[in-house]
Write a structure and sequence with these properties.
CATH superfamily: MFS general substrate transporter like domains
Number of strands: 0
Shape: globular
Oligomer: single chain
Distance between the termini: 42 Å
CATH class: Mainly Alpha
CATH architecture: Up-down Bundle
CATH topology: Growth Hormone, Chain: A
Order of helices and strands: HHHHHHHHHHHHHHHHHH
Length: 433
């Protein structure tokens, strides 16, 4: 009976591969062999690339309208600020209700408002309407992000979790730079409204894939209690678990002090690198493409060539080298030299963030994953707009170089003070349950 023998042969083949060339247990390639994971991951990647295409156009458009770093920062706050305020709500929903419905509803809301944003940019580009549309999209993202972060690692077997987490981080983080790279290149040709409309269409990829796969049920809650108890569950876990707490403090510090340079990239391009109008400049698109290419190598490396490296060591080395190249980038006034430097900034930045995310996800229990990942999203995405508000004003008062180099100095200090090595040692010394 061939049909009965085939699964055994497959298992034997897989065992041989794992013992020989190891394609893959625990690696990114192993995670991609799971059909539902692969489909959802690809759909989310396509959608998020569209989102970050829109984001690059937003920053350039906001600066073109006002020539103000402060207004660019305000738009960045509208875009990412809801992650800081509403992610815990999204995390509680993700751990309490049907995650498919939560995700589809949030994605649909963002798609509709993105079409509205395209109309506003084409016909009535007022600062108030621009802010309102971006804020509405940010609210939908704050509800969507924790649910997606909770569900994706559950689509693979336990032994392939590290590869899935690495790829999830690649998807979440790599789209932040591939999208802007593509958006920066096509922006001079399709215009700001065109980029916004293309982004709206890409939400169909995420919605469609969510409707054709089987999502796991929401795990049983380890603690009882009502809505308030669920909301604070992530904070309770971070307080109880030293490793979770140190990871969240590290990513929040990086995001607040070191990452404003991403949102202020149009300002840096105009003031330091001689790109007078980022909205219509191919050079600005190429600059972002170099950053994106570096980030691609950095993010993928954690689930491939660095899969056996200790995550906390990747974080330390990544922060050290990221700090060095970010400082160089802040001082540069030569566009040609900026291309390879921003590539290296992207590479070590994304290797660091992906290693942090992988360390966290590998450590979490499924039942609290949504609420803890909500705190990760608050720290990673939600803190950035607060930093933009603060350092956007500082860039106007002093210079964008001061902001970028200051962020590099904080990253350098954090490389030696993050406390991850001790926290990991404490966790690994505990007896297994």
């Amino acid at each position: 009976m061939r049909s009965r023998e085939w699964p055994v042969e497959v298992e034997e083949t897989e065992d041989a591969l794992l013992e020989g060339d190891r394609p893959i247990r625990g690696t990114a390639m192993a995670a991609l062999r799971h059909r539902d994971f692969r489909v959802v991951w690809l759909g989310a990647m396509a959608s998020n690339i569209g989102t970050w295409m829109q984001n690059i156009a937003l920053g350039a458009f906001a600066y073109h309208l006002t020539k103000s770093a402060g207004f660019v920062a305000i738009i960045g706050f509208a875009q990412l600020g809801p992650l800081l305020l509403l992610s815990i709500v999204g995390g509680a929903l993700a751990d309490a209700f049907d995650r498919r419905r939560v995700l589809v509803a949030a994605q649909t809301e963002q798609m509709v408002v993105s079409f509205v944003l395209a109309w506003v940019a084409a016909h009535h580009p007022s600062q108030g309407l621009l802010f309102a549309c971006v804020l509405a999209i940010g609210i939908g993202n704050a509800i969507n992000a924790p649910a997606f972060s909770a569900v994706l690692p559950q689509l693979v077997e336990r032994e392939d979790l590290s590869g899935a987490v690495s790829l999830q981080s690649v998807q979440m983080n790599l789209s932040r730079v591939i999208g802007p790279a593509i958006g920066g290149i096509i922006l001079p040709f399709v215009g700001v409204p065109g980029v916004f409309a293309i982004n709206a269409l890409t939400y169909l990829f995420a919605i469609g894939t969510l409707l054709v796969v089987r999502l796991p049920p929401v795990p049983v809650q380890p603690h009882g209690g009502g809505g308030l108890s669920r909301l604070v569950g992530g904070f309770r876990e971070a307080k109880r678990d030293r490793l979770v707490g140190r990871i969240l403090i590290t990513i929040t510090t990086i995001s607040f002090f070191s990452l404003p340079f991403i949102g202020l990239m149009p300002v840096l391009a105009a003031r330091n690198l001689g790109i007078a109008n980022p909205v219509k400049s191919t050079a600005y698109g190429v600059l972002y493409a170099c950053f994106g290419l570096g980030a691609a190598f950095g993010a993928v490396s954690v689930g491939t060539v660095l899969v056996r490296a200790r995550r906390e060591q990747i974080v330390r080395v990544g922060l050290l080298v990221f700090a060095g190249f970010l400082a160089i980038f802040g001082f540069l006034h030569n566009l040609t030299a900026a291309y390879p430097i921003v590539f290296l900034v992207g590479l070590f930045y994304f290797a660091t963030v992906t290693a942090l995310s992988t360390l966290l996800q590998e450590h979490l229990a499924d039942a609290v994953r949504g609420r803890v990942m909500a705190l990760w999203i608050m720290g990673f995405g939600g803190t950035v707009p607060i930093g933009l508000l603060v350092f956007g004003q500082l860039a106007d008062a002093t210079s964008v170089t001061v902001v970028v180099v200051g962020g590099a100095a904080i990253a350098l200090v954090l490389a030696f003070t993050n406390g991850l090595r001790r926290a990991v040692a404490e966790v690994t010394s505990l007896p297994r349950q």
